């Protein structure tokens, strides 16, 4: 099914991306507070909204193709210059604005995830016994005693 106009999906796309932005803001709070349970509720919702947004984008691309433009995101500007009006232009600009906001939230949330992973890895490293560079087994195949750990955990 081809959408009648490439602009027909813009409002719905805005709503979906806006919902994703709100979820990403919640995700950021869960990341800051290290709330794994909260994070686990966000991911499936984001995925579902992203899939819907992708489908609407595909419909818009097909409509661009049917209108004689390449079926690409970059074709919206030329289509708007020829076929669009002020309302469609405003809708498109708002969608682009929301997409930029989502991209920035994704970047920041990614940094927070990496920070949490690094912290977790450091804590795991502190819990592992020190081997002073030795392997688990000595040259004769006998297990080496590691002795007491010199590492500690600071909470």
TrEMBL record:
Keywords recorded for this protein, A-Z: Bacterial flagellum biogenesis, Cell projection, Cilium, Flagellum
Entry coiled-coil feature ranges: none
A Pfam family of this chain? FlgN
Organism domain of life: Bacteria
What role is this protein assigned?
Required for the efficient initiation of filament assembly.
Tell me its family.
Belongs to the FlgN family.
Query: Know the name of this protein?
Result: Flagellar protein FlgN
